[in-house]
Amino acid sequence: MHIAEGVLPAKILISGGVISACFTAYGLKKLKYKEIPKVAILSGLFFIGSFIHIPLGPTSVHLILNSIVGIFAGWASFPAIMIALFLQAIMFGFGGITTLGVNTFNMAFPSILAYFFFYNFAIKRKSNKFLFSLSLFLTGAGSVAFSAFLLSFSLFLAGQKFYEVAKIAFIAHIPVMIIEGIIVLFMITYILKVYPELLEKERG
Predict the structure, then answer these.
(1) Nearest to 142 by CA among 113, 172, 104
(2) What is the pLDDT at residue 118?
(3) If the chain, 204 residues long, is cut into consecutive pieces of 10 residues, what is the mean pLDDT of each piece?
(4) Domains of the chain and CATH, by start
(5) CA 90/CA 146 separation, integer angstroms
(6) Residue 53 has what pLDDT?
(7) I need a surface site. Which of 107, 139, 180, 199 has the fewest CB within 10 A?
(8) What's the pLDDT at 57?
């Protein structure tokens, strides 16, 4: 899901950089000192999730795990994901420095939306197992779906020559949406069974 350098026009790169910088600054402001180790671990989890990827033109398909980062890090998702993307860019050539802002927004913003719109809905319906499970699934799947949409939209804005790639990029991520939905469902369900205090603390 990384957009490579040389694909997007300067105005999109600058806009993405400014927006992500603002959200990252806000995330750092909200980040408490005692939460730094947790956010570092989540950043590492996001970093590792992108190791196995399949190149697809200017992008790639791989596990994203941004919904998990969003659930446990909240607004700190932006600095956590930005650091991971920066390290991926300089160490392995995934994405790039000029596209760091756009790539960060495409992956971090959906993680926050997934938390607010799907995860909170799920927690309020723990008594209804079906709605609870469905909402958790949508937390993971929805986060990837919105990231894929932002990726495709970014490529769409890059010009007509990327229209077809934008469509393929979104379709290619449909299996990832399903897989991550299942991952979030089982992970959160397991945590609520063995250590619910952890999750309640993170939501507080």
Answers:
(1) 113
(2) 76
(3) 86 95 96 91 89 59 87 93 94 89 96 82 78 89 94 88 85 88 91 79 46
(4) 10-203 (1.10.1760.20)
(5) 26
(6) 62
(7) 199
(8) 54
d(CA 168, CA 71): 28
CB 71 within 8 A of CB 38: no
The model's pLDDT over 18-46, given as tens digits with 9 standing for 90+, comes to 999 999 999 999 999 889 999 999 999 99
Looking at residue 169, its pLDDT comes to 81
- pLDDT value at residue 127: 77
| Residues 170 and 156: beta-carbon distance below 8 Å | no
Secondary structure string (H, E, C) spanning the chain:
CCCCCCCCCHHHHHHHHHHHHHHHHHHHHHCCHHHHHHHHHHHHHHHHHCCCEEEECCEEEECCCHHHHHHHHHHHHHHHHHHHHHHHHHHHCCCCCCCHHHHHHHHHHHHHHHHHHHHHHHHCCCCCHHHHHHHHHHHHHHHHHHHHHHHHHHHHHCCHHHHHHHHHHHHHCHHHHHHHHHHHHHHHHHHHHHCHHHHHHHHC
Two tokens at 47? 């970093």
Name the residue type at position 41: I
The answer to whether 41 and 190 are in contact (CB under 8 A) is: no
Token code pair at residue 154: 């970014």
Interhelix angle for 66-73 vs 100-114, to 10°? 70
